[in-house]
Amino acid sequence: MSAGSAQGGRLEILKFAPDALRREITQRLRVIRAAKGRTLVEKGSRSTDIFFLLEGRAKVLLYSANGREVCVHNIGPGEMFGEISVLDGEPRSASIVASSEILVVAMHAKDFTACVESSPAAGIWLARALASSVRRLTEQVFELSALNVQTRIHCELLRLAHAGAPTNGGIEVRPAPTHAELATRIGTHREAVTRELRVLSDEGIIRYDRRSLTIVDLAGLEQSALR
Questions:
Q1: What is the pTM of this model?
Q2: pLDDT in tens, the chain (227 residues)
Q3: Could you give the C-alpha distances from 69 to 16, 29, 183, 190, 222, in angstroms and in order?
């Protein structure tokens, strides 16, 4: 069994394809291991592969004219990326950069399209994935338009808490994002993040160091986000 075939068994979309099609596609899958910082997709490029992240984390980035980095989304295990260009035929809408060492499976665009067209269940699966993205982006637009920087920081910390691991001391987030990374996610500058994290730490709501972020008082953080 090839590496592509082995990893193909972990791709949810292939579960909907007929057996013969699934066997054909898994033989063409490409397994990619990439180091932190590697760019997998370049904004504006005409590449059309679809990627499925199996291990590690990646970030969806846009850059302003003066080079400011804006993180639109953080991709975790089980998520796909690159599907938009296949669906609308336009160039890549953002860059994808590895946030850690990652393991991804790349699928050719024609194989992805064949999967979606092979089964109504596959089409529903894709529609649900896109609906989830729309909900997330709608929430982000609202936060950027209606909430101040302090509250946006609290909302981002709550998202991290929901993905964190419960410990005796609270909810631990690993790896801890840097202040600069948090700033790119919520559209502000590093200094504002540093100030607010210091306040939350002094209030006993979080505990933060270079290696970890612990939400000590989740209820307190939720209340802060509502102020």
A1: 0.84
A2: 567 666 777 899 999 999 999 999 999 999 999 999 999 999 999 999 999 999 999 999 999 888 888 899 999 999 999 999 999 999 999 999 999 999 999 999 999 999 999 999 999 999 999 999 999 999 989 998 999 999 999 999 999 898 888 888 899 988 888 899 899 989 899 999 999 999 999 999 999 876 789 999 999 999 888 77
A3: 37, 31, 10, 12, 28
Q: Which CATH superfamily is domain 3-144 in?
A: Jelly Rolls (2.60.120.10)
Give the N- to C-terminal CA distance of the chain in Å, as an integer.
Answer: 56
DSSP state of 178: P
CATH number of the domain at 147-226, please? Answer: 1.10.10.10
